Amino acid sequence: MKTYHADEKGYYGKFGGAYIPEMLYPNVEELRQRYLTIMNEASFKDEFDQLLRDYVGRPSPLYYAKRLSEKYNSRIYLKREDLNHTGAHKVNNTIGQILMAKRLGKKRIIAETGAGQHGVATATVCALAGIECIVYMGEIDIKRQAPNVARMKMLGAKVVPATSGSKTLKDATNEAIRDWINNPIDTHYIIGSVVGPHPYPDMVARFQSVISEEIKWQLKEKEGKEDPDYVIACVGGGSNAAGAFYHFLDNEKVGLIAVEAAGKGIHSGESAATSVLGNDGIIHGSRTLLMQTEDGQITEPYSISAGLDYPGVGPLHAHLYESKRAEFISITDDEAMTSGLELCQLEGIIPAIESSHALAALQQKEFGADDIVVINLSGRGDKDLNTYIDYFKL
Amino acid sequence: MNRINQKLEENKKLLSIYFTAGYPSVNDTVSILKELEKSGVDMVEIGLPFSDPLADGPTIQESSTLALKNGMTTDLLFEQLKDIRESVSIPLIIMGYFNPMMQYGVDKFCQKCAEIGIDGLIIPDLPVDVYHDQFQAIFEKHGLINVFLITPQTSEERIRFIDSISSGFIYMVSSASTTGAKNTFGEDQSSYFEKIAAMNLKNPQIVGFGISNAETFNQATKKAKGAIIGSAFIKYISANPPEKISDFVEGIRS
Ligand SMILES: Cc1ncc(COP(=O)(O)O)c(C=O)c1O
């Protein structure tokens, strides 16, 4: 059967793999050799499930959005990842990876963060496990995301500014990778999305796959069938989308819609729509689609939403795009903000601006009255309040 | 015979210098190369700058950022090096990350190197197994030597595999770290240097990362065939004109 999952070497079609310097090889190889075995251990599964239930608050509800459905004349469900502890899907992955790190005997955790959501989710699980936590964050993002910086500090993490290059997420990722090179024995790197060298994209997708696992049984209860007609998710690196798509990837009857950030417009020069603007290359150890100059220098993306502000996508998504298994659409800042406010007013839910991009797919696409459309509401809008205030002059 | 192999047969400890093309100014490449040869340097690694050099410490990061700002590109570097073999005869290696080479086209990139008289490549993020599966034939067709890195954490089995695929020298990373100047090597490095020497590999080893002065050069080359200086040299040329390069080299050789 045709599959869209990673092969043994971490390739999705031609994308993926592990393009890493030799200095990283022992760490990445150790993880590659052990991740599946560890994830399949009964004690690991028990601990993971228990923490997702009692600590994160899973299962997250699958909510039938009645007024939104009426407006768009379709059957729209929201997968409420915004109700997770720490406010987004990111914690599903960090819970999994901290348990992985403990089983690998690691004593020190590093992570990168852009908006600070993944940094907060990592700092949280490190506090939970009593493990040292260092979060790299671009100097510019530290200024833009002060509340999340404060949260990480309260949770006991050390936040280190990335001052190289463009001083944002891609540079924070570079710094985290450099830290790992310099600390090859006792450190585990908790990557925040389905990016990086194999096995990260596959491992993170598996940890996030709980999203689609729940969608299946929740839809069965509510609609009498497991499969929706469409699943919609926003894509920065692609982890919430990977989790929401995961159990539907090989079922081509389910339409997958990946939403990228068009920023101020795809051809405005300020955009993060990687599938349109990017091409085949290597970023952070993975072969995938990325935004770059003709000369192969990685360029700086732009989106009003810090979580979508990454110049690449994970290799799974590059493959879903090239194979046309998923439809990729791009949403501008303005469209996203409008849809975010609409959700507030129709359903009483303030979404993260990342998730507002997924919601804005409703403005671009038309669905049938009987179509079951699941939108992954990847996070809540608390962290974005200042952006909403500035934008709507509240 | 490839100039690298010839050089490795000389009965001396080799000094290799790394610098980032396009730094300090965009047109320094050729004059730096000439001065290096005149000063008695044995081999040069010309750094093709990359926006995201993830194996590099602050010095090489900064030089890369500035080189790109100065306008360095792959085409421009090839253009600058077009007639380099009329004036420089020591082995020349291009060191860079894989993405710019991939965008140029690996085959075209290698062909261009061969035309110019580049002898080898060092590509830290092109792993040995991917090279072996996909690119070895292309490199060999153009007579280029690809140099692989080993580190203190590289297993013996993997070192043997890398040795079997290599045809020039092995780049021995001195310690688990990104590039950057250190002032001394400790016990750990000495025992690592000895361990590798005792493996009797088919390829000679050249030590890099953390070599900054005569002392570290001598420590590194006690067992190994040579050593590579990068960050310390870049710091030096930030503050001194190319004509002063011989002072730096004399300081290392003393
Ligand atoms: C709420 C939310 N959604 C989506 C994303 C984008 O990440 P990914 O594409 O990995 O899901 C982020 C990243 O910070 C986020 O905070």
Automatic annotation (TrEMBL), chain A:
Superkingdom of origin organism: Bacteria
Matches recorded under Pfam families: PALP
Entry's Gene Ontology molecular function annotations: tryptophan synthase activity
InterPro entries per UniProt: Trp_synth_b_CS, Trp_synth_beta, Trp_synth_beta/beta-like, TrpB-like_PALP, TrpB-like_PALP_sf
Residue stretches making up the Tryptophan synthase beta chain-like PALP domain: 57-379
A GO-annotated cellular component: cytoplasm
Gene3D superfamilies named in the record: 3.40.50.1100
Subunit structure: Tetramer of two alpha and two beta chains.
Family the UniProt entry places it in: Belongs to the TrpB family.
Protein name in the entry: Tryptophan synthase beta chain
Source species of the chain: Leptobacterium flavescens
TrEMBL record, chain B:
A Pfam family annotated for this UniProt entry: Trp_syntA
Cited CDD domains: Tryptophan_synthase_alpha
UniProt KW Transcription regulation keyword: no
GO terms under cellular component: cytosol
Keyword Lyase listed: yes
Active site location: E45, D56
Enzyme class at the top of the EC tree: lyase
Family: Belongs to the TrpA family.
The protein's name in its UniProt record: Tryptophan synthase alpha chain
Organism expressing this protein natively: Leptobacterium flavescens
Gene name, Swiss-Prot/TrEMBL: trpA
